[in-house]
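Narrative progress, year one. The postdoctoral researcher (J.K.) led the effort to move from monomer predictions toward full complexes, under supervision of the PI. The following entry was the first complex the group processed end to end, covering 366 residues in total.
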Amino acid sequence: MHRRRFSRNLGLGLVLAAFVALVFALTVVKVTQGDRMHANDGKSMAGTAAQPATGTAP
Amino acid sequence: MTDIRSYEDNRDAGFGDYVQLLKPRVMSLVVFTALVGLLVAPVSLHPVEAFTAVLFIALGGGASGALNMWWDADIDAIMRRTKSRPIPSGRIEAGEALAVGLALSGISVVMLALATNVLAGALLAFTIFFYVVIYSVWLKRSTPQNIVIGGAAGAFPPMIGWVAATGSVSLEAFLMFMLIFMWTPPHFWALALFMKSDYGDAKVPMLTETHGRRVTRAHVWWYTVALVPFSLALGFTPIGGNVYLAASVVLNLGFLRGAWTIWRRDETVAEADGYKVEKSVFRFSLLYLFLHFTALLADAALRAWGGF
């Protein structure tokens, strides 16, 4: 019984870790693609190109 | 009841039992068709977005599977094929399956909407609602047309994949939906003809039980005839191509031939050869759907390389 419970906990732990990694990866992609909130809303793609990184050089 | 109790005590659910709750074999079909719908769309997503989209479309499908098992636990316990599912075998409690199903439904809809767009998320939510409420709760036990209308749930994934990429429903998405929707009835009725099932004991009105095998045979043929125009029409849309058209013509001829044979032969002949034709048509129908979507993918790849 303990082994089964362990398999369940281990599985759930791995799933949660994968979920965190996925949300992180998705965030990185969304941010580097510019300020679009969605991949495509059916609106024009023009003007949604990636914004240049604005490092404020002194 | 006592034997089930003792079984429950010494068999705590493992991770695999929860995976079983999501109907992994159904999920594999969802993954494939959703992926094709997404890849043949004229707009391409970032690979991470595409992966996330397909993952949560599949998880949404799995969630609806869990909710279906929660609702159908009583009839699953009666039928041989489904007796060993996690709930009737006592490994997972019905309430737990309901919780898992609802939680995963919410997560997958929200994550799909965030990763792609709100319409895709809404379509996924509708698909889950359709499969659980319209099909499982309402139609499955009340009409022999259950699988005809219930087939719509299985037909949504390529459309959701398409919408995830493009943000809107178009003719191509509609025809991909219709291809699976029209394919489902002859596919399942061919199965119902050779699976000596116990739907009767569980009081599920399958066409073979309510209207007999003769009528079911006729239905296989006529629904196959109705399927053909949708399959061919998809070939003349922008996502179709030479590979798809060639595959479609060959596959439809094969399916029509099989369905015709099923219709023309009677039960004594079928019983004598162990339902050979029905079994082969069922297997062919799986290939039929798989190759249609593979052909769409092939044409998309050829277009990407500038051929055809």
